[in-house]
Amino acid sequence: MSTEEFRNEQQFITDLYARLDDLRDQAEAAVEQALRTPGVGSSQGRLERDVMVAEQSGLLSALNAGESGLCFGRLVFKDGRDHHIGRLGIREDDPNRTPLVVDWRAEIARPFYLATGYEPMGLTRRRHITTKGREVVSLHDEVLDLADATRTGHESRNADEVLLAALDAARTGRMHDIVQTIQAEQDAIIRSPHRGVLVVEGGPGTGKTAVALHRAAYLLYAHREQLAKRAVLIVGPNPAFLGYIGNVLPSLGETGVLLATPAELFPGVRATGTDTPRAAAVKGAAGMADALAAAVRDRQQVPERGEPLIVPHEDGDLVIDWDMALEARHKARETFLPHNLARPYFVFRILDALAEQLADRIGADPYGGPNFLGPDDIALLAKGIAANPDVHTAIDTLWPPLTQQGFLADYLAEPTHLDDEDDAAAIRRDGGPWTPADVPLLDEAAELLGEDDSALRAAEEAERQKQIQYAQGVLDVSFASRTYEFEDKEELDKDASEVLSAHDIIDAERFAERHEEADHRTAAERAAADRTWAFGHIIVDEAQELSAMAWRLLMRRSPSRSMTLVGDPAQTGDPAGVGAWQSILGPYVEDRWQHVRLGVNYRTPAEIMAVAAETRRAAEPGFEPPRSVRSTGVEPWDRTVDDPVKEAADAVAAELREEGRTAVIAPAELHPGLIAALPEASYGPKPDLTRPVVLLDPRQAKGLEFDTVLVVDPDGIREGATHGINDLYVALTRATQRMGVIRPAVTPA
Ligand SMILES: Nc1ncnc2c1ncn2[C@@H]1O[C@H](COP(=O)(O)OP(=O)(O)OP(=O)(O)O)[C@@H](O)[C@H]1O
Known about the structure:
Blueprint: H1 3-36, H2 43-65, E1 71-77, E2 82-86, E3 90-91, E4 99-103, H3 111-114, E5 123-132, E6 135-143, H4 161-168, H5 184-190, E7 197-202, H6 208-222, H7 224-230, E8 232-235, H8 239-245, H9 248-251, E9 257-260, H10 277-284, H11 287-298, E10 309-311, E11 318-320, H12 322-334, H13 339-362, H14 375-386, H15 389-398, H16 404-413, H17 421-427, H18 438-449, H19 454-487, H20 492-495, H21 502-505, H22 508-514, H23 523-528, E12 537-540, H24 548-556, E13 563-567, H25 581-589, E14 593-598, E15 600-601, H26 606-617, E16 627-628, E17 637-641, H27 644-655, E18 662-665, H28 671-677, E19 681-682, E20 693-696, E21 706-712, H29 714-719, H30 724-732, E22 735-744
Parallel strand pairs: 2-4, 7-13, 7-14, 8-9, 8-12, 12-13, 15-16, 17-22, 18-20, 18-21, 19-20, 21-22
Antiparallel strand pairs: 1-2, 1-5, 3-4, 5-6, 10-11
Helix pairs in contact: 1-2, 5-6, 6-7, 10-17, 11-18, 12-13, 13-14, 16-18, 18-24, 19-22, 26-30
The structure holds adenosine-5'-triphosphate.
Adenosine-5'-triphosphate is lined by residues 163, 166-167, 178, 181-183, 186, 202, 204-210, 568, 571, 602-603, 703, 705, 733.
């Protein structure tokens, strides 16, 4: 081993960290300096200060992210170029700003992931640098130009050595980035130039989640300008999963991302309730959109023929009959506006018709001549009718203003327009918290109803007028003080006409605008609070789990249809999950979407995958799992026992002696017994995955991985749900090292 080579690399890394420290100090000082700037005076000054704080804080967190594994590679090109590759790009403090280390996302870094002996991409050598803190631990060189006889002493016999070491490492309960070992098939997806919908499919452990997250980081790098403004949304199946992947993007220096489950995408609603599988399936089905639309139309009523609404009025009864209401409803519906926005058209039409009715009655010439009332009299009558609260109460019974939550609660209390009576019974609800399956329905209701914000806009306009008046006062004062100040100065007379004051360059309206409170939240924070936010890019993990109604919600958040969807239909668990991609995407993008597949399993060793595949084949004989990249020589075990809880407790006790994390995956019915027997286990809706032992039901295990997995009562898992075989397949593919299957000798009661 060449120690000189090693020493040189260590020196480079030491210098690089010194530069990182400098940059960090500068960014820290800039943040402090900006925070100390009082930002008084104009709101422009405050805004500039806040932008500065945000920019420097973002830079600081990116620099902090570089602390671990800052530089992990080096490319030596035939033409003499020599680049270090790292988590972020860092430049020398010289006039040319010479790159010290190149960001892994830069085009020049690509051969690090793609070059092979057959296709060296101009490289003679590729080096993997493994560091611990700021110390270089090892170097692995791959010679790509066989004609080059130079040897460093660090040549690697196994090109996959670094990858296998990463895959073999004990799990921590948090997902890590894979920038050091992205594989070629993954790189192609991460950097795919496709702007529309990209579907990434692959079996368990093929790196779908990892690829999706790195694609987000890549897009933020390549299209920073657009995406920083519009933010990226990452949708995952449950909070535990989001917690598991939550560190990956920050570790890559990226923070402009909102992570959410579909149930969290209706601001102001926390969906804490649960549905039966049948209810979730009915609520998620596409037909629900038509049912809700029809239910909204049902709220737009007309009186029965011959049974008009009578409103007593000082000038005589007002009559709203079938004809009048039908015509008004037709006019309102003709606008194709949502219910609440079309409502004013209905209201005005009725008010007009009532004014006409009254005028005809009061001003009628008994001898058949023209009406006695002039336009002013009729206007006065109309005003009187419009001010009559009883008239509005009557109109409200025909076309009521509706709130999203009120409408949906009413609908679910008495569901209508469903083909099957049993479906209606399944979703009938009498109060209680909203469920995740209700969230897309609330969103649908919001679209169907629209928000009549005319009152809000009127209030805003009144406030704006007040601000303008106030600003006018401020400007008047400044004009007065200007005269006063300049009177003291001798040169006043000759120069005053050339001095610009606020008064000369700005009118009251613009002055008021400048004093409006600016919104300094990040794009991701604003997006989280805004139902109508259009994201720059959306990534959906476990996309096969989303119902048709959830897709409608997501597509509304992505008018540009710039999306990456990752999933595996063989792992679908949700009863409302949609099967084929074309049926999901067809209604939105027809066939303009791209489909790519990942075929290598990086997580599950071959021995465990064989068991998982065999189990699946019992139901699906031709099933082919992804190929495992490694085998550990450790066979999974399978025991049938009288007391599965005790067996699980004993197996966990044995595992606790090893490094890493263990998951016990069991049907929810067995959890009370297991909780009692496993005092060290974390469990519940959002278990702490960093603890040594975690107890999960199969759905919660989705997307996660552990060193050891114990699957308790596999037959119970398979029989326990609509897609039970998929749930069992998920459970059997979560281990990176060891797996045990525990079967009860007697089926649990
Ligand atoms: N190129 C890589 N280098 C190192 N580790 C990798 C690589 N690709 C994937 N992995 C690791 O393999 C494991 C599985 O990846 P990931 O969770 O992304 O797979 P997945 O396809 O989403 O799986 P599932 O569908 O089962 O949830 C993770 O630990 C991930 O870090």
